[in-house]
UniProtKB/TrEMBL annotation:
It comes from Fregata magnificens. It comes from the Eukaryota. The gene is Fcrl2. CDD domains: Ig. SUPFAM superfamilies: Immunoglobulin. This is FCRL2 protein. InterPro entries: Ig-like_dom, Ig-like_dom_sf, Ig-like_fold, Ig_sub, Ig_sub2. Residues 28-122 form the Ig-like domain.
Amino acid sequence: LQLHHSGRYRCEGTLKHHLRWWKESALPMMVVVQGVPVSGVSLAVQPPGGRVAEGDRLVLACSVAAGTGPLSFSWHRQGSAAPLATGPRYELRAAQHQDSGRYHCTATNGGTAADSPPQWVTVLGEWDAPASGASY
């Protein structure tokens, strides 16, 4: 059953014996198919923990636990008014220091929308790495 199946329905039937009989229900029935609201939005990050070396690849993936589609996704970083991208994945092929921040995705089905919990991403430059021979 899909959302576009909403509409007015009536029952029709025929009986064939010596003569052909046709019968139709008196009043049409309105059927409304409602979508399941989007919920349980989650964000996964690769590498795990959201810490990536500058120049390395960072992948964020958004998923939902429930919600009838079609689903669409948008990506947001704290401090950025406009969405960074759309789609269930957001990939930075070569992460830069300015890509650090708090990210979340928003999933919507046109009727409802929900945000994932935020995920901190830290892009580490060479100044963040321990000096050679140093131990922590």
